[in-house]
Every structure is written in C-alpha cells, then in structure tokens.
Queue: 2 jobs
Job 1
Amino acid sequence: MRNRMVKATGAALLALSEAAEAAYQWNLPTPVTRVAGEIYNLHLVMMGIILVIFIGVFGVMFYSIYAHRKSVGHKAENFHENIVVEIIWAIIPFLILIGVAWPATKSILNLKDTASSDITVKATGYQWKWGYDYLKGEGEGISFLSNLSTPQDQITGGAPKGEHYLLEVDNPMVVPVGKKVRVLLTSNDVIHAWMVPAFGVKQDAIPGFVRDTWFRAEKEGIYRGQCAELCGKDHGFMPIVVEVVSAAKYAAWVAEQKMKTAAAADDPNKKWNLADLKARGEKVYAANCVACHQANGQGVKGSFPALDGSRLVNGPRGRQMEIVLNGKRGTAMAPFGKQLSDTDVAAVITFTRNNWGNKTGEVIQPGEIRSARK
Amino acid sequence: MSAVIDSGHAHDEHRPDGGIMRWVTTTNHKDIGTLYLWFSFTMLLVGGMLALAIRAELFQPGLQFWHPEFFNQLTTMHGLIMVFGAIMPAFVGFANWQVPLMIGAPDMAFARLNNWSFWMLPVAATLLVGSFFVPGGATAAGWTIYAPLSTQMGPGMDLAIFALHIMGASSIMGSINIITTILNMRAPGMTLLRMPLFVWTWLITAYLLIAVMPVLAGAITMLLTDRHFGTSFFNAAGGGDPVMFQHIFWFFGHPEVYIMILPGFGIISQVIPAFSRKPLFGYSSMVYATASIAVLSFIVWAHHMFTVGMPTAGILFFMYATVLIAVPTGVKVFNWLTTMWRGSMSFETPMLFAVGFIFVFTMGGFTGLILAIMPIDIQLQDTYYVVAHFHYVLVAGSLFSLFAGFYFWVPKWTGRMYDEKLGKWHFWLSMIFFNVTFFPMHFLGLAGMPRRIPDYALQFAGFNEIASIGAFGFGLSQILFLWIALKVTVLGQGEKAGQRPWEGADTLEWTHLPSPAPYHSFDEQPVLG
C-alpha cells in the first residue's frame, strides 16, 4: 500500500519536474536502473518523514511564539524537568531511524552486488578526460578515450551554448540495454569520481587501486554525468556520457569499433616526414596538452610552464621524451606513455619542437619512443 | 595614564598602557577575547569576499571572471579561512570573554599562554592569505586537501600546511587553558552540574580539539613529506594509499564540525531561557546529549567517504552510527522548544537569532539525515546538496549562534545597548538572504550539479542565478553588522546598559557584575549558595 502511494507520488512529481523549465531542474533525474529507482523512492520516503517531523516541531514552535509572548501578557511557568517526556522523545526518533535503516540496508546490499555481470568495462580517470577499456563480454578489446566536445568559444562566451553544453563528449561509452554492466574504476593521476545520476552510480576512481560498481540500464537513451571529485583545473570539464542502445545496435557499434581500431593501427616501423608527423602531433596536442600548456604554447604563468621557447623542448630530445612518457612527479604533468601510442608520443614531441618559436627541425620517429620506453 | 596606585585593592580601574602595546602584551581575558573576535570578524569578511568572487563566476554559465585554476583557489581558501580563521577563533573569543565571567573566575588559568595562543593566529592568517601571491597561487586542492591532488600543488600548499600547523597549535593551547580554567577556577559552590550550559559545551569542545588537532597535524605533515622528501604515505606507487589520507582527515574532520557547532549550542542554551523568562528545560539531558554527540563524532567519519568503495560491513557500520546522532541532536531541539513552551517570550535581536538558529539548523539536521542514508548519499555526495547542507549548519548554525551571542553579551562587554532597530534589520536580512542563497542549492544537488566546478550545464542555470543574488545580499547584510558592532564598541554609542538588561538572564555575569564588566572582575570569588 505504502509502496503504491510512494510510486504514485513519485510519478506525479516526475511529471511536474519534466514540465518545469529545463533551467530549473530540481529533483533527482528519472531513474533508469533498479538501484536508482530504489534511491528515488528512499528519498521520497525520507522526505515524507521529515515533512511530518518538520510540521510537528515547527508547528509547536510557532504556536508557542504566537501564544506565549510577554507582549500578549503570558506569564512564564517554571517547569524544567520531566524524565518521562525526555525518555519518550529520545526513543521515538530511535524507532523511526530503525524503520528507515531497514530499507536502506536492503538497498546497499543490492547496489554493492557486482557479481555475474554480462559486460565489464574499465573506466580510467585522467586529468581531464575518461578512458574506457572493454575487458569482458561482447566488445572485449575495445578501448578509447572520451574527451569533452564542447567547443572552447562556447565556454568563453564567443558562441551561443548548445543544448548539452559541458555534458557532451567525442566518444561516449556505449552499452546494451538490459545487460548488467560492471564498471571497474581506477585513475592515472589523482582521485576522480564516475557519476551517472540516472543510473544511481557514483564511484571514486583512485590511482593505484581498482574499485567497482555496476548498473543495468532498463531504457535506451543517452545518459549524462560529470566527474564528481575535485581533480584539479578542469574538474568541471570532464563529463561522462553513456549511450544505452539495443542489442542489435550494440553489436553494430562493436563491429565498427573493431574496424576503426584495425584501421588506426600504425605501422610501428614507418619512417615519418616532418610535415605529416607535425600535423598529427597538432591533433594529439589539442586533445591532451592544450588544457595546461595552452594553444599558444605559453602555458599559465606560475602553474603550467610554457613550451614555446622552453629550454627543455629546445634541448636534448631524450629528456623531453622521458617527461612526456613518465610525467613529472609533484606536478600535474601526467605520464602520457600509458595513454598514447609510440606514434602519438613521437608526433606530439615533434610538433612541440617545431611549432611556435621552436625551430629545432628534428623529427622524432616512433622507433625512438619504443626504445625510450625500454 | 590612569595607573595611579592609590590603594592596593582598587584594581577595577587598573588598566594597562594605551596604544598598540596594550593589545600586544595583554594577558587580560577580556582584551584577548576582543582580539579573537575582531580577528575572526576580519577573516569572515576576507572569506566572504572570496565567496562572492565564487558566486559572481557562477551567476551565469560560461567562464566570465576567473580561470578554472583560480576558481579552485577561491573555493579552497574560502573553506580554509572560514573554518580555521573565522568560526573557530570566534568561539574561542566567546570562551575568553564568557567562561571566567560565568564561573566567577578572575581570569583564564594561563594568562600568558592565552596571549600567545591568540598572537599565533595573525601569523598563520598571513601565511594563508599570503599564499595567493606565491608562484602558482594558493592551494587549489579543496579545503579537504585530498592527496594526491594536494601533492601536485605549488608552494601555496606548503604555506597552507604551515598555517594549519600554527592554527592547530593555537587551538590546542587555547583548549588546555579553557579546560584548566573550567576545572580549577569555578566559584565555590558551582559544581560541574551547576555550570551554565555554555561552559559545559566549551569544556566538551576543548577536549574534542585536543583529541583531533594532532591528528590533522599528522595528516598534513605526512602530506608535506610526500611532497618534498619522497615519502609515499599517500602514493600507491610507493606502497601508500590515497584513501588513507581521507580516513585520517575525516577522523579529524568530523569532530571538527562539532567543534564548530557545540559552543553554538551552548550560546543558544543561554539565550533561549533568558528571553523565555523560564529555566532551561532538561539541563542534565542537555549535558548528556552534548557529551554523546562528542563521543559519536569519533565513530562516524567515513560517512564523508561513502563513494570511495568501502566494504559493505563498513558502510553499514558508519551509516548506523551516523543516523544515531539524530537522537541526541533531537533531544536538544526538543529541549529548546520546551523551554520556550509556556514561557513569557520577547524577541529582541539575540532571541531572533536564537529562534532563527533553531529553525535553519534543524533544516540542516534534516538534510544531514538524508545524506546519512548511504544509497541516497551515492546520488548526493560531492554535489551542491552537500554544499547546502553544511552551510545550513555552519552559517545558519554556527554563525547565527555567534550573532545571537554577540547581541546577548555586548551590553555586558561595553556597558551599552546595541542599536535594536538595526539589529533586527540585520537578523531579517541575514535570514532571508541566507535562505535565498542556500535553499536553491538543495535542488542543484538533487539535479546532479557537482560542487567545486567553475562552469555548469544549462539545466543548473536558474537556481545558480538565484543563489548568486542571495549571496551578494547576504554579504552586504554583514556590512550592516560591522556598523552595528563598531557603533556599540569602538564609537561607544547607544543607551547605557544596566547590570542586567535582560530580565531572564541569571548567570553570574548578570547577577554579580556591573555593565560594563570591570577590567578585572571577580578578584574575590562569589560564593554560590
């Protein structure tokens, strides 16, 4: 009975929230997993309890303020102790708490149960993007990075903001509807958190450790979330987009990804010329480096060093290769060797050594990177 | 100078030299209390300006004023300055002024230590605020300075760490002083269970401080050596664990939030009976409730970390322990209401702030209960819902209780009444703008807006706009408070206050001392019957 009432109120509130203007989204998003649905109902029940207590407590308080004022001539009484009353109002909240702890406990046991999944995906937090590796189940072996795709001029106000401003990526995570997806979380640098509110999922991604969570989306659609743990400068600019599709569409997506991976595989022994490698390096730079070192290579004074005119970039190539591959401890410079292929590392180094005011004329071949990795 | 020694006992008019040296060298609890209060109010204004810089950026989507990294510095420093610079020292200021007056003691137990624990604070504040001007700027890792993000920061982080060390040392010395004063210098006849509730809450708070400030010092020292000496306490690559930092930090951090509210409970427990003209209901259960809250605060820390991926048993333990806190907190609220019930209430500014406190603090308590339910917390953790929750308990809780205490006791401190009309304006403006600022943040959090982001998606635009307008209103309302405070203290304007301007106030400072309380009070201890 109570459950049905909760559902009915829930549906009414949902309709209301959808009708409200988009700029004033005010409630938990419409749940598309069982866990999110449980959370939604639990929140409604809690709000109901709180509302009753609120009306009771403040009804008494405001009645007292109205009736027991000196200005209306109320004389103070002198009672100041009543053991029975005090014990009763300690016990009643205790019983209410036991009442809510029970459904919460059931829900926790459910949301912690990551066993027997159909698909396992590893999500890795990077400063400031997500990487997805499909580890088990249909799509095994697929691997890609997912970057914010909102153009910079929308952020700085040069262009009108699109509908999914800051919540859109170049490569979304794609999963089939109705399948249990286990997500393994880890990080390459600092702590991030992977959150998709419609799934009722939020899990920290901790460098050096693997944690897991799961969801089973019951409705096709595109679901959006953001990094939920402060992770540095562009914490607000690393969204999560999950596309839930039918089994057939998923199979097609998997096939397409496999083809792409095969096509993108570089011949590691190819000898590149400066122009081609620099052009490729510019793309790698835009996707990975520009957030800190800036498009003009000037960096941000005091926080991120300039590459234009940098001694390191214009000096011996070995030192620069080492820093790009292994990062620099104690700074935001990540070890990109773990994310980028030999060709991409070679390209981006070549690009930085031959762009802006830097004119070394050197071409770094992928083979050099391979041997630098050892 | 007025230091005419005409009689060995005429201490009441025996003031120290004027000028700056009076304040630098003073060992008088009233002077030091005043210093603490002005220091904390200054920091409140600094932290408030940072908050307005944050709200200006968040007024509309897009980046208008600040680079993202500077925005992160703003949120971080706003938190650190408000917690360690504004709220904590303000309560110590109240303890300095009021504890000796309320227990009938001539001064604090360790007068020179008292001077030192204050004068460390401006040094720490200089380091903290000055860190904005070093290369790379201030720390931008959030006030929780989670590793390993904090190991990435520039020298601003080191300055913040040193500032926290110094503030921690100051808090520990202040606490030792307060505990010793309370336990050893009470007037004859004032047994522990006859102490005013403000004194009780500070006794318990001081023990909390001594227990947890060293824990913070340990955590940030490990951070410092991770940063500079190649240790790996929080670095998985060297065998450390980033999550361990969070455990240690919140083992400090949760008691810390009660450090910032318990003395506020104490102030409210003095003000409500005074203006209800009726004794506090359930005195002893208030004492036991405060003590239980303090004990529970040590076993709930991991509810700040429900999303790190704890084992199920750990989650259940911390969830159950956390919801238990609602019981003693509920007892306190019920007791305040019953104190008001069938009283003879009047609503001068201190009472307005006290009633306002009960109203908004209880709302913060409700959202705390929501956040304690772990599955719901999964949705709300690190969103604006959390921001709304802790501002309801810290601004509308701690800050409103501080305002209530100021208006309540300033006649005793200065011998003059504050401007009642302006005081009421200050209350209503603060109350309204506070809710305009922070109530919409509940909706933002439910809708999934993460905290600590300089720019946001379009569905969050409406409520952010409202919150920013409220924030500027709230900030400007505090300028009015500055004027009220200046008028009654520095300018010495306002009606002369009698010894006992509040007819329901019955603690020693009202019954035994004139207004203003003489520079040296209780040279002879009063005897309680």
Note: Chain A touches chain B through 104 residues (CB under 8 Å).
Job 2
Amino acid sequence: MDSTVTTGTEENVWGGGNQPLGVSYGKLMMWFFIVSDALTFSGFLAAYGFSRFKFADTWPIADEVFTHVPFFHGNYPMYYVAFMTFILIMSSVTMVLAVDAGHKMQRNKVTWYMFFTVIGGIIFVGSQAWEWKTFIKGDFGALETKGGRILQFVDANSGERLALRDFSKTIPSERVNHERNKGVWYYGETALPSYSLNEVVEGVKANSNVLIRTEVINEEGHKTLLTREETIEKLNDAKLVVEGANLIRNEYGSRLFGDFFFFITGFHGFHVVTGVLINLIIFFNVLLGTYEKRGHYEMVEKVGLYWHFVDLVWVFVFTFFYLV
Amino acid sequence: MAHGHKLEIFRGLWKFKSNTQKIWGVLAFLTFITAVEVGLGIAKPVIFTHNYFLGMKLLNWIFIILTIVKAYYIAWDFMHLRDEKSSLRRTIVWTPVFLVSYLIFIMLFEADYIYNVYHEGFIKWNF
C-alpha cells in the first residue's frame, strides 16, 4: 500500500490508502456478506411470523411436535434441540479459541481447535438430519378433512395421543401401491399410508375411547378436544390419511408449519454444511503451514466470523421455531 | 484487533485476566441463558403464559429478550465486535436493526389484519 499512496491524502481518513473502519478488505467483505445474509434469514423468519400470526389460533404447538431424543423412548420436549444449541455454541467457542491462538501464532493450538470446531459442526448437522428424519416419518398419524384441516386422535381415558396403529381396523381391500413398473407410460404414485381412510374411520367407530383433537387452540393454550358424538360426526369430513410430513401436508397441523420447518432449518443446515467445508479447508491449510508462511492467521478469523454467524442464526431459529 | 482486547463484560462487573478466560466466561453465561430458556419452555409458569404485554404472552417476551441478549454476547465477544471501531460496529448493527424492525412491523400488522378477516369474515375454513 505504501508505494501507491503518494498524493499526501493519507492524513484524510476517507482519502484512500488506509482503513477507515480499522479492518482489512477481506474482513470488511465478510461483514458485508454476513449483514446481507442476516437480512435473508430475517426475511424467512418474518415470513414465518406472518403465517403464524395469520393462523394464530390453529398453529401447531412446537413442544408437542419435537419430543424425540435418539435412543430414548418417551416424551422429552426440547431436550434434544437444547443439546444441539449447546453443541453449536461449543463449536463457536473452539473457533474463537482458534482465532485467539492464531493471533499468538500458535500453529499447534490452531490446528486442534479447528479440528474440534469441525467435529462440533458435523455433530450438529447429523443431529439435524435425525430431526428431519423423525419429522418426516411422523409418529401418530392423522386424518385430513376436505378443507385441509388436520384431525388427531386422543385416548379419552388417559388423555394421551393415540397413533393410528393403536385403533385402526384391518380391512382387506384390493388397493395396492401403484408402482412405475406396472403402469402404462411408467407413471407411479407415492407410497400409500399404512392404513386406508376406511380402516381408520371404522377403527374410531369401533373403539369408544377414541376422541378427535382439532387444530384449534383453546383459552388454556391446548388443542380442542371433541366429544364422542362430535368425533363421529367429524369423521364424515375426513378425506385422507396423513402420516409424517412432506412439502404438501403434515400430520402436525397447518401445512405451512411443515414448509417453514423444511425451508428455514434446511437453509440453516445448508449454511452449517458449507461452514464445515470451509473450516475443513482452513484446517488443512493450517496443517500445511500456509498461514505460518503468510505470517498471520487472518483467514482463520474471517472464517470464524462466518461460523459464529451460523451460530447466531441458530439462536434465533431456536427461539422462534421451538420456544415461542 | 491484533492489539488489545477489552477484557470485561457486563459493563465492567466481570473482569477477566486473558482473552481465553473471557471466552469461557461468555460460554458459561450463554449456557446458563439457554438452560433458563429450556427450563421455562418446559415448565411454562402460569404467571407468564396468562399475562400479556402488547398482545403477546409474557413468556414469549422473555424468550425474545433472552435471545437478543444471547445474540449480543455472540456478536460482541465471539465475533469480537467489542474490539472493533465504533463506526464499524454501528454500521453492522444498526442497518439490519432498522430494516428488520420495519419488516417485522409491516408483516405482523398485516398478518393480524388477515387473522381478523378469517376470524370475523364470512370465510368457511373449518370443513
């Protein structure tokens, strides 16, 4: 830089040839990117808030949806997401420690801290993949009405949720899954649900303890339960059996809930994956001694900014998707 | 950045001897907040779920405020904005804060209007 500034403008802060904001070009551009990316995520979250306010009294209740922990059966709302949050914050910490060690030119420490950061990122992405799998597979199953509303089932005696397999009848029918290799012009269809609509409806009629739970949230903040008579009446509106979730419908309630789940956590997960890749590249560069030769570890710092940003976004996603 | 870290948080209430120590201190604080959030989310105390402020449950206000506190410490200490020039800090923080507040305001206001149309209007949705 020294050789290019000859006009004497260096005394003037914005005259060029210096760094008015006190950061290098690379770091400033990383901040530019982070601010614009933050606006993108804000757009998604604001859209989520829009849809949620629009359907304020029928939106699914998050801690009834995300109740699973790997290797454990039962109802554990939010523990697993809290664990994921902790993992991500932890890998943020190892990242700052790597940056800190970089300032002191301690190559060995930077290597180890970068390694732990990558491991933390991989654990997080793996956990998210598991969350998606559980969400897509579903748990209890539900019916969808002609108007696209979701009907879930509850045991009248215990108040616990009932899965379709708990009460559905088995009625032999001719309907088989239509596969590509059997059709004209190789048209197939998606997998059939485990029970047909008829089997579920007859199952409800045969078991007097089955009640329907609608999407509507009552004064106490719980979903509304129908009486037995209303339940039988409501069955006439049912049109489809829904198990798990896809981009069109999900068994948890509002269709938009599933869409936003896939879109927002998916976009965030994509950021984590790219973050892990970039961290890996930097890790190998540290191993090869690239930054030792360069004389500074600023690259670690820039990548660190991105990695912390991913953590920052998750803090907001966690609040608006799982807590609020 | 390379020279000198500010080694105190909570406006000087908690001072650290080195940058590494400060990082662990901030981690402890963030973990504590997350634990409080999860605890409140599971317990859902009635005082917070049945009282409203500006049309939103107190519990949700607590969650949002705690989230912003967490975001502050991530940005200030992990992304070391605390050690940057104030001009850079303000550019980074106030631009999105202004734009996002505006966006949230119009989106939620509009959504509430649509909610009322669905609620009171002649649209049949539950069939």
Note: The first strand of chain B starts at residue 8 and ends at 9.
